[in-house]
Design goal:
Elements: H1 2-15, H2 22-52, H3 57-83, H4 87-110, H5 116-145, H6 150-179, H7 181-200, H8 216-228, H9 231-261, H10 266-314, H11 326-357, H12 364-376, H13 379-393, H14 395-415, H15 417-420
Helix pairs in contact: 2-5, 2-6, 2-7, 3-5, 3-8, 3-9, 3-12, 3-13, 4-5, 4-7, 5-12, 6-7, 6-10, 6-11, 8-12, 9-10, 9-11, 9-12, 9-13, 9-14, 10-11, 10-14, 13-14
């Protein structure tokens, strides 16, 4: 039987060029580590704010603002810098810094020093590394797999992300409930450090950066000009930018809705988030056939509509004790999370593929970072506005405003010809 399994795996690996690529397999393993750790911290850090430090909606919105602010401050210089440097050393340094930054949360808790300002600073440093390291990561993946295999690689990443969403949130919820959230953050810190050690062993021929005597500001201006003169990228800039503004407003209030309005415990919250893993698994199976049949443009529009309707519009409408049962409310929350997470992956896999195909190699770092600046930079506005509305009128009202604007955005993007017209390749 063992021999038969070995033969099956050998056949599967020989048929798939990505699975016979040692550098891809090593990178994939690191992405699995980070994915599992991220699922733990995505619950643990907001719950540190909401349950241990009794954060207000306004304070939760500041945390979300600190997540988006590095895109505004550092995306543009990071893009120019990435185009002039090899990507692997930058990726390693960022992952090590992220691991050490997360480890400071439980250390501060044990010393009695953890506070909301501490979480603001940690969030700001962590997401600054994410902006720089994330840009390096996207270019590094292209060096490993090439443009033609990018969607295939992304579908594999989505499959493992969905597996982590099936397992990690439930374990995280139980871990947080039994041991408190700061202990759970150690899991994510360890995953980043182990991932950096693993990536250090990767052997891949990175193309040498193109030497440039240009002033960095000129490179930044050329990145903006390229996006402005490319109708598809220009549409992405305003469309994905507005989506991120709504996303950060939604995210800043989602945990408060679940814990304070719907009465969900960390354990129940972890279990409902596991349905998001099934949604991501569904997207990993849907993305390739949908892209072949409808093209990445219509696939992206499907994904963004799912996120807006299931997430932004319907989640804040879930009643507490639906049909007289908090379990029914939790089930509705879980079902909408399934649709929402499926939509998120359809949206961003299609978007990243279309952006890569529209960008020459020499501009890749600048375009990735400039698009991050143009899209994520509006996040603080959405987080602060949603927090202010929630402080004054309540969490549901703040999230309801996000949903109403989201429906208008979905309609505008569906009517845009530049995304709809991208055909199957």
């Amino acid at each position: 039987m063992i021999t038969a399994i070995q033969r099956y795996l050998a056949t599967a690996f020989s048929k798939d060029p990505l699975l016979s690529n040692a550098a891809f397999l090593r990178y994939w393993f690191s992405s699995v580590l980070n994915s599992f750790g991220a699922q733990v911290s995505s619950l643990a850090i907001p719950l540190c704010s909401a349950m241990l430090l009794n954060a207000t909606p306004g304070q939760m919105s500041i945390v979300a603002t600190c997540q988006a602010l590095p895109a505004l401050l550092f995306s543009l210089p990071a893009g120019v810098w990435l185009d002039r440097r090899r990507k692997l050393p930058i990726l390693l340094a960022c992952e090590i810094m992220q691991g050490l930054t997360l480890a400071s949360i439980p250390l501060a808790w044990w010393q009695g020093m953890l506070s909301m300002p501490w979480l603001y600073v940690v969030t700001l440093i962590f997401h600054t590394c994410a902006i720089i390291g994330g840009g390096a990561e996207q270019i590094f993946v292209l060096a490993i797999v090439g443009r033609d295999k990018l969607i295939d690689a992304q579908s594999k990443f989505t499959m493992t992300d969905s597996t982590s969403r099936l397992i990690a949130p439930g374990l995280a919820g139980l871990l947080i409930q039994w041991l408190t959230a700061p202990y759970a953050v150690f899991v994510n810190a360890a995953s980043f450090l182990l991932s950096a050690w693993n990536l250090r062993q990767t052997k891949v021929e990175e193309p040498a950066p193109v030497p440039s005597e240009k002033h960095p500001l000129r490179d930044i201006r050329e990145g903006f000009a390229f996006i402005w003169n490319t109708p598809l990228l220009r549409t992405f800039a305003w469309g994905i930018g507005l989506w991120h503004m709504l996303f950060y407003g939604f995210s800043s209030l989602q945990i408060l809705l679940a814990t304070r309005e719907l009465g969900m415990t960390p354990g129940w919250l972890g279990v409902t988030q596991m349905l998001g893993g099934l949604g991501m698994l569904a997207s990993s199976m849907l993305i390739k056939p949908m892209t072949r049949r409808f093209g990445p443009g219509k696939t992206m529009l499907t994904g963004i509509s799912m996120t807006i309707m299931a997430g932004f519009a319907f989640i804040p409408a879930i009643p507490a004790n639906w049909f007289g049962s908090p379990l029914a409310s939790a089930a509705a929350f879980a079902g909408l999370v399934f649709i929402y997470d499926c939509g998120v992956m359809l949206l961003f896999i299609s978007y990243s593929s279309m952006r890569a195909h529209a960008t020459p190699d020499a501009y890749m770092g600048r375009i990735i970072s400039t698009m991050r600046f143009l899209t994520i930079a509006m996040g603080p506005l959405g987080a602060l506005a949603a927090g202010a509305i929630a402080d004054r009128y309540g969490v549901r009202t703040g999230m309801g405003c996000v949903g109403a604007i989201g429906i208008a955005l979905a309609a505008a993007l569906i009517l845009s010809p530049h995304i709809r017209s991208v055909r199957p390749r």
